[in-house]
């Protein structure tokens, strides 16, 4: 069998197990094979096992075609995905209760199998979370997530932004989130964006849940009064990334608030912000410098996003843009991606 990719999978090759002799090819080779099969009255093919062939490797890492994509359609103010991790062609221990294809008719038994999917990237990130929890026993789950996100990287080993295997083009934060996890850097992130249970309750109230619904999450039999607790916007949840939706209601300006906690070795650290603004967006951060101390290890800031030339944006068909902010103290780099979308009903003059 020849298993040929369609456009959605592009040139990504996944080492699936098969019950019969088979090979997999990317979309380009698949298109040529299909053309040959339909143009020749007696098409033939031969599979030749050549063993390991060593050649120039493509830049890595790259984002799998099957990887989950943004934007977040339910809550557009929260950027998804968060991070990416190894998940393609992972050699892992395999159960002896089923064959490598996981089919009932597959009677083969192996100790190891090559598996791909988000179910393979999940244990990598889970293991890193356990590592961080061991190293920092007082960190909350939100602090651990923040450390993984703000220290992630988005450049491959050739110095370019990750390639999206679904399109062959550069990936964006709607594809790779904050980037690829980096365990060594995550152990010492410098700053973390922490979130407490009450913050999540306020967030759920803001996006439309009522007290009875929220009681299921907080295990509280008493009703949560959402009229007394909500955020100005869902985007005010203390998340380590920024997702901005410019709509007719926003009037071209979106503001979010954030709080960062100093978890580095220097309690008197001073962080300054570096802004990489998305195209056609003005980004301002106030204050632009955070001065921590032993008495004050958590500081807040406000970030404002102002849309520019919105009418031109609609004419040119630009629907999204991306950037980042980065807090640095000379030792740590605390990076948060910015994803912006314009969703005006029609062209709007600013």
From TrEMBL:
Keyword field contains DNA repair: no
Keyword Protease in record: yes
Cited Pfam families: fn3_6 (PF17766), Peptidase_S8 (PF00082)
Domain of life from the UniProt record: Eukaryota
InterPro entries, per the entry: Peptidase_S8/S53_dom, Peptidase_S8/S53_dom_sf, Peptidase_S8_Ser-AS, SBT, Subtilisin-like_FN3
Segments forming domain Peptidase S8/S53: 59-163
Stretches assigned to the Subtilisin-like protease fibronectin type-III domain: 236-340
Keyword terms of this UniProt record: Hydrolase, Protease, Serine protease, Signal
Family: Belongs to the peptidase S8 family.
Full protein name: Uncharacterized protein
Organism expressing this protein natively: Solanum tuberosum
């Amino acid at each position: 069998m020849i298993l040929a990719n369609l456009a959605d999978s592009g040139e990504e090759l996944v080492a699936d197990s098969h019950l019969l002799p088979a090979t997999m090819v990317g979309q380009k080779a698949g298109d040529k094979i299909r053309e040959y099969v339909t143009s020749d009255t007696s098409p033939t093919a031969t599979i030749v096992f050549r063993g390991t062939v060593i050649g120039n490797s493509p830049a890595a890492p790259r984002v799998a075609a099957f990887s989950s994509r943004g934007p977040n359609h339910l809550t557009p103010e929260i950027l998804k995905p968060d991070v990416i991790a190894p998940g393609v062609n992972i050699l892992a221990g395999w159960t002896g209760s089923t064959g490598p294809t996981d089919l009932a008719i597959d009677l083969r038994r192996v100790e190891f199998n090559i598996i791909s999917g988000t179910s393979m990237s999940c244990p990598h990130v889970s293991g890193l979370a356990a590592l961080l929890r061991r190293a920092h026993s007082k960190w909350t789950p939100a602090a651990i997530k923040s450390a993984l996100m703000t220290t992630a990287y988005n450049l491959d080993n050739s110095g370019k932004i990750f390639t999206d295997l679904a399109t062959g083009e550069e990936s964006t934060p709607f594809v790779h989130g904050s980037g690829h996890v980096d365990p060594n850097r995550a152990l010492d992130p410098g700053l973390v964006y922490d979130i407490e249970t009450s913050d999540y309750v306020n967030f759920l109230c803001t996006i439309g849940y009522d007290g009875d619904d929220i009681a299921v999450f907080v295990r509280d039999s008493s009703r949560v009064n959402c009229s007394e607790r909500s955020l100005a916007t869902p985007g005010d949840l203390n998340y380590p990334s920024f997702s901005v939706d410019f709509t007719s209601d926003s009037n071209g300006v979106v503001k979010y608030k954030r709080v960062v906690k100093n978890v580095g070795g220097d309690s008197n650290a001073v962080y300054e912000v570096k802004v990489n603004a998305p195209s056609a967006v003005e980004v301002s951060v106030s204050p632009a410098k955070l001065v921590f101390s032993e008495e004050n290890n958590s500081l807040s800031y406000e970030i404002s996003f102002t849309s520019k030339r919105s009418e031109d944006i609609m004419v040119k068909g630009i629907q999204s843009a991306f950037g980042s902010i980065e807090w640095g103290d000379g030792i740590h780099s605390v990076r948060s991606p910015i994803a912006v979308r314009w969703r005006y009903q029609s062209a709007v003059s600013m």
